[in-house]
């Protein structure tokens, strides 16, 4: 499956990247996250325990499944308001 | 229900007035205004940048507001959140709720703010004398949102 993975705030800055197209088979967002985190270096930021994620612009949990064409977002806890 | 995510400044008083001007059945308006402070977590703050997730921001706010409308009998509900560069003293966020009676308006306003704080994709980056820093999420915000479960 092909996914558009987007990053925000502190993660976007640490990775020097706001989005990346990722090709692969992932049963869940957590598998995608582990795949990216194991690249090492700055990518280990995605292993943070309070990481938040969204699938197709909707907040979800890490065990959420994925489908071809999905947009997956990773970001630190939100701080608006 | 109105959602505005904008760079431009706004006048909280005008927003409050508009909430009851359109409907004479409104007996109560409760509003919350959040401002940029000039001091946070031990450092002077010279300014702030508000980042968000275009597309998801509006959807996340709409979801919170629909839930508020399902829980309380509301006549009007508005959320306005600024993005981009902000200076100390400027309003960041406005939540305005109109209803026939006060309790629904008080509760719905608190609910929307508590959920916005923990579910809407905004991030604050402060400019301080020691350099820029991202504001960290607070456990107390999570606890505030949990009380509505």
TrEMBL record, chain A:
It comes from Pseudomonas psychrophila. Belongs to the MoaD family. The keyword Nucleotide-binding applies. Keywords: Nucleotide-binding. It comes from the Bacteria. Coiled coil: none annotated. It holds the Pfam family ThiS. InterPro entries: Beta-grasp_dom_sf, MOCS2A, Mopterin_synth/thiamin_S_b, ThiS/MoaD-like. This is Molybdopterin synthase sulfur carrier subunit.
UniProtKB/TrEMBL annotation, chain B:
It is an enzyme of class 2 (transferase). It catalyses: 2 [molybdopterin-synthase sulfur-carrier protein]-C-terminal-Gly-aminoethanethioate + cyclic pyranopterin phosphate + H2O = molybdopterin + 2 [molybdopterin-synthase sulfur-carrier protein]-C-terminal Gly-Gly + 2 H(+). It comes from the Bacteria. One of its GO terms (biological process) is Mo-molybdopterin cofactor biosynthetic process. Keywords: Molybdenum cofactor biosynthesis, Transferase. One of its GO terms (molecular function) is molybdopterin synthase activity. Signal peptide: none annotated. Pathway: Cofactor biosynthesis; molybdopterin biosynthesis. The keyword Transferase applies. Its EC number is 2.8.1.12. It holds the Pfam family MoaE. The keyword Transferase applies. Heterotetramer of 2 MoaD subunits and 2 MoaE subunits. Also stable as homodimer. The enzyme changes between these two forms during catalysis. Belongs to the MoaE family. This is Molybdopterin synthase catalytic subunit. The lineage of its organism: Bacteria, Pseudomonadati, Pseudomonadota, Gammaproteobacteria, Pseudomonadales.
């Amino acid at each position: 499956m092909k996914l558009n993975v987007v990053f925000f705030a502190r993660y976007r800055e640490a990775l020097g990247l706001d989005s990346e197209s990722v090709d692969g088979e992932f049963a869940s967002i957590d598998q995608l996250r582990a795949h990216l985190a194991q690249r090492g270096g700055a990518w280990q930021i995605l292993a943070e325990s309070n990481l938040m994620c969204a699938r197709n612009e909707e907040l979800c949990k890490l065990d959420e499944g994925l489908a071809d064409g999905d947009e997956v977002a990773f970001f630190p806890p939100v701080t608006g308001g | 229900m109105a959602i505005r995510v904008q760079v431009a400044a706004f006048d909280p008083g005008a927003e409050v007035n508009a909430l009851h001007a359109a409907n004479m059945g409104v007996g109560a308006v409760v509003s919350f205004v959040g401002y940029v402070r000039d001091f946070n977590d031990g450092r002077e703050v010279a300014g702030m940048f508000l980042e968000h997730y275009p597309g998801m921001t509006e959807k996340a706010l709409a979801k919170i507001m629909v839930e508020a409308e399902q829980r309380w009998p509301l006549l009007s509900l508005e959320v306005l959140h600024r993005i981009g560069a902000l200076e100390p003293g400027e309003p960041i966020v406005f939540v305005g709720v109109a209803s026939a009676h006060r309790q629904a308006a008080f509760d719905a306003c608190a609910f929307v703010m508590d959920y916005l704080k923990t579910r809407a994709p905004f991030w604050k980056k402060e400019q301080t004398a020691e350099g820029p820093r991202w504001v960290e999420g607070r456990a107390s915000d999570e606890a505030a949102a949990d009380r509505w479960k």
